[in-house]
Amino acid sequence: MSSRGLALAPPAKNVVVYRNGDPFFPGRKFVVNQRRFLTFEAFLNEVTKSICAPLAVRNLYTPRHGHHVAELGDLQDGHPYVAAGFEKFKRLDYLNHGRKELRRTRTGEGLQVSPRAGCRDTGSSHALGCSHCSVFRNGDLLSPPFALPLSKSTPLQWDALLAVLTEKADLRSGAVNKLCRLDGTQVSGGEELVSGDYYVAVGNEEYKNLPYRELLVPQDSACRTLWYAD
């Protein structure tokens, strides 16, 4: 009886999951089977943690046409998917865009956001010769700053940087339209960002001069590298 049950058990499925709206995320591989994931919700919870999603993953979509995946049985072995919260599916070339963009800019000089910017891995960023700045959300004195890894080896267009900030900040007002220093002066280009400095992501509203650093950054410098929210 037990051998028959094993024979009827569906085989494991290997899938790759991308982050909704993130053209630089390389994708994360998952092995899906009944022993590891009893429910679709359990799988979504694991995806949330593994891809460092800014919000809990509650939906999966096919990357090319945005078809919704409703249950574990709908997953197909060897296929890619896009993980999202409750926001709409964002149509991008997830399978090729990020890699093409990185190859295209590899010969330039300037500033680039690391493809792994969504993860709390400042140690690996330093190991790769990267640095990072810290970004607060305009008017938000409840959420700690998130880390924005930077590299001067390859350039990133300013609008692309704002797109990355929009995803990471998740402002209630919508997209991030500008980045300000703590004194309220606006940053006009990626070359102006300084490693270790603090900035504020701002939408369409005016910059709100609040004590972000005083209230949201621990005084103990040993804790600062761990005090980031994705």
Automatic annotation (TrEMBL):
A Gene Ontology BP annotation from the UniProt entry: intracellular signal transduction
GO cellular component: microtubule; microtubule organizing center
Listed PROSITE patterns: DC
Doublecortin domain boundaries: 13-95, 131-213
Keywords noted in UniProt: Repeat
Pfam families xrefs: DCX
Hydrolase as UniProt keyword: no
Gene3D superfamilies, A to Z: Doublecortin domain (3.10.20.230)
Family annotation (CDD domains): DCX1_DCDC2B
Entry-linked InterPro entries: Doublecortin_dom (IPR003533), Doublecortin_dom_sf (IPR036572)
Top-level division of the source organism's lineage: Eukaryota
Protein name: DCD2B protein
